[in-house]
Design brief:
By secondary structure, the chain is of the alpha/beta class. 42% of the residues lie in helices and 19% in strands. It contains seven helices and five strands; from the N terminus they run E-H-E-H-H-E-H-E-H-E-H-H. The longest helix is centred in the last third of the chain and has 19 residues. The relative contact order is 0.20.
């Protein structure tokens, strides 16, 4: 069984990126388990706070889930043509020496996905993530990217995916990433 953890990079209750992960959970190929995590409870990184108190519980809990996963999907919003600060902040915490010796992401298969109200999906945010993924030493799945544009129309008022074209991409995307993980 391949275990994938999807992390939503948005804190918003009606997040399109969290909704995208929930839609993925309904399109799993055989042999894949899927969990969803959010960044709720992760404080702003502060080296003084880390020195005084260590790794915050929310960061430690998320690190445990990442370590247990065979692969991770980062479902990223796009803010001002880049990655959201709250998501980058969480990754900064997760890459500290107090979390798996700073090597939590080393060799970990990671894929990118994202949903945005704009017309270009999250292409710039996903591109912005590439330098961070390289610095972390991830095993980035570059063969597949999932970008949902005009997310306000792709999801209904209850955040259920209603766009058949996007839904048709989910199974192949997840199967491709699971195959990459298995290599």
């Amino acid at each position: 069984m391949t275990r994938i953890l999807g992390i939503s990079g948005s804190l918003r209750r009606a997040s399109f990126n969290t909704a995208l992960l929930h839609a993925m959970a309904r399109h799993l190929p055989d042999g894949v388990e899927f969990e969803i995590a959010t960044l709720h409870g992760v404080p702003l990184y502060d080296g003084d706070a880390e020195a005084a108190d260590g790794i915050p519980p929310a960061v430690a809990a998320l690190a445990t889930r990442i370590a247990a996963a065979d692969g991770v999907i980062l479902s990223t919003p796009e803010y001002n043509n880049g990655m959201p600060g709250v998501f980058k902040n969480a990754i900064d915490w997760l890459s500290r020496g107090g979390v798996a010796g700073g090597k939590l992401f080393a060799g970990k298969p990671v894929a990118l996905a994202g949903a945005s109200p704009g017309g270009f999906g999250t292409i710039l945010s996903q591109t912005h993530w590439l330098q961070v993924l390289r610095a972390l030493g991830t095993k980035h799945w570059s063969e597949g990217r999932l970008m949902v544009s005009r997310a306000g129309k792709a999801f209904d008022a209850e955040n259920a995916l209603q766009d058949a074209d996007v839904a048709a991409q989910l199974g192949p995307y997840l199967a491709g990433f699971a195959g990459f993980i298995g290599k």
